[in-house]
Amino acid sequence: MQQTFSEVEDLETWISDEEAWQQEHLAAWIFGLFAGLALVLAGVGLYSVVSYSVAQRTNEFGIRVALGAGRGHVLRIVFASTVVSVGSGIAVGIGTGSCAELDGAEVGAGERPRSVGAAGWDWGACFGFGGGLCAAGAVCVPSGSDDGAAI
Q1: pLDDT digit string (tens) for 19-76?
Q2: Helix (H) and strand (E) counts for the chain?
Q3: Least CB-packed of 59, 70, 111, 150 within 10 Å?
Q4: Of 126, 64, 62, 117, residue with least CA distance to 92
């Protein structure tokens, strides 16, 4: 049995004819869907970075175990590098996200966006802040040459 509709309308008309709370509910549902997708992508990205880091250091871990390091010590090394990666990512995300949130709040309120946000930061400062954190993180990452220093 085929169902037919007597009144066909496009999506824009259907959304605009709904009550305000239903429109807000739809927007919240869509944002929640994208937030969930972003969380899944972040988890997959974190897994890939950690697995790549462990794969690069497999020989080092084997030598450490052969010299008597316990499983807990090797896991502590892996978790320490993971915390550094995640912590630097959180710091960059909070810094640049707060900059974007400040300028986005002005646009969302219907105001004409200014070049300087409410906290006195402009876009150049936001990206400079993020770039500075990335550069500081790059300085802290070992170059890959083993000079015999203990980790």
Answers
A1: 766 777 888 889 999 999 998 998 898 888 888 888 998 999 999 999 998 999 998 9
A2: 5, 0
A3: 150
A4: 126
CA distances from 98 to 80, 92, 95, 120, 149 (A): 27, 10, 5, 12, 38
Q: Cα 4 to chain center, whole Å?
A: 45
Q: Which residues contact 95 (CB under 8 A, 6 or more apart)?
A: 126, 129, 130, 133
Residues 89, 136 contacting (CB under 8 angstroms): no
- For the chain, the structural domain boundaries read 22-56, 70-140
pTM of the model: 0.51
For 141, the 3-state DSSP assignment is: coil
Secondary structure (3-state) at 57: coil
Spatial distance between the Cα atoms of 129 and 88, rounded to a whole number of angstroms: 12
Asked if residues 100 and 129 have their Cβ atoms less than 8 Å apart, the reply is no
